[in-house]
Amino acid sequence: KKKLLVDVDCGVDDAQAIMLGLADPNVEILGITCVHGNTTVENVCKNVLRVLQACKKLEIPVFKGAAKSILGITVGDGSFHGQDGLGDAPDAGAPSLDLIQEENAVSAIVRIVNENPGEVSLVATAPLTNLALAVRMDPTLPAKLKGLYIMGGNTESRGNTTVCSEFNFAADPEAAYVVLNDYQCETYLACWEFTCYSQLPWDFCDAWLGQDSDKARFMAKIFRHSMEEAKKDSGCLGFTGFVSCDSYAMAAALDDSFVTESDCHPVSVELTGTHTRGMMIVDTLGLLKKTHKACIMKKILGITCVHGNTAVENVCKNA
Ligand code: BDR
Ligand code: CA
User: How many CA atoms lie within 13 A of 152 on its CB side?
Assistant: First the structure.
């Protein structure tokens, strides 16, 4: 089985990414580490437990990590994912935070990767604070990873948080800088513009959420708020569906054939600049003199099929 560690700031698309990973029988999620971002790290922990509860996987260990960026800032304002990060949908039966592990998320990343050298892929769908701290604790960590899959950054200087920066990088530019420069392992980036071009049509979302299952009912409940926000203004030009940003990083980690085209270049992050702090830099000419290249996802498998109106084989045939 593929071994994954998942680092999240559990908003709605993080929840979708986690559920995608949990649904894959060929994957073992060794732990989920939580970090500030869409909401407070305490809410993130609670949200991850709610997702695991909905999927009947509460045995997966959940670790609490950094509450603030390296410079001590938090940026999540709750406008898209709700104040609690999962659409502010009441949940009287949420699991107790007592289930959160005592070990800190950063220590857990270092420990789990060292226990499984060369086997663990890290999926990061959040500000990169935990990952930056982990490589400072253990500089040998990146060399022991199988792969690193990040949702974050941007390639066309089109931001969704500041004019030029994507949320996960804007929330902790220093951490993004450390990760892009110090994790010299196989790296895939699902950047903001790429995820914008890969939208889930609204009628697909309706069919998905309308299914008769506990997981679909949970998703429908937490998804309502951000769906309404996205229909008003997603920040993506020409938007016609939902952008489940974090799911693309997860899908790439799950399935080696998911990314059909990528551009690999040295990348870094702008740390100063009137408008550009947090913006990702793509060094197409090699002027930074860096040897390590990250692969920026460009194209993915066109159409994915799922059971629903008919058997999944028929769905594929019809598509
Ligand atoms: C990223 O920001 C968060 O709001 C989402 O969960 C995603 O990780 C998109 O810019
Ligand atoms: Ca996220």
Answer: 35
The pocket around ligand 1, CB under 6 angstroms, is made up of 11, 13-14, 38, 125-126, 151, 160, 166-168, 192, 245-246
Q: Could you list the active site residues?
A: 9
Token code pair at residue 110: 């270092």
In sequence order, which residues have a C-beta less than 8 Å from that of residue 26 and are 6 or more positions away?
1, 2, 254
ipTM value of the model?
0.99
Task: Tell which atom from ligand 1 comes closest to the C-alpha of 167.
Answer: 10
Q: Return the amino acid letter for 160.
A: N
Place of tokens 């990702």: 280
Tens digits of residue pLDDT in 290-311:
999 999 999 998 766 567 777 7
Site to substitute for ligand 1 among 38, 75, 195, 247, most atoms within 8 A of C-beta: 38
Question: Where is 65: in which H helix or E strand?
Answer: none
Determine contact, residues 128/8, Cβ cutoff 8 Å.
no
Cβ atoms of residues 268 and 227 within 8 Å:
no
- pTM for the whole thing? 0.93
Q: How far is the CA of 76 from the centre of ligand 1 (A)?
A: 10
End-to-end CA distance of the chain: 30
3-state SS class at 59: coil
String of DSSP letters for 201-256 = EHHHHHHHHTSSSHHHHHHHHHHHHHHHHHHH--SSTT--EE--HHHHHHHHHH-T
Cα of 244 to ligand 1 centre, how many Å? 9
Tell how far the Cα of 35 is from the centroid of ligand 1, in angstroms: 12
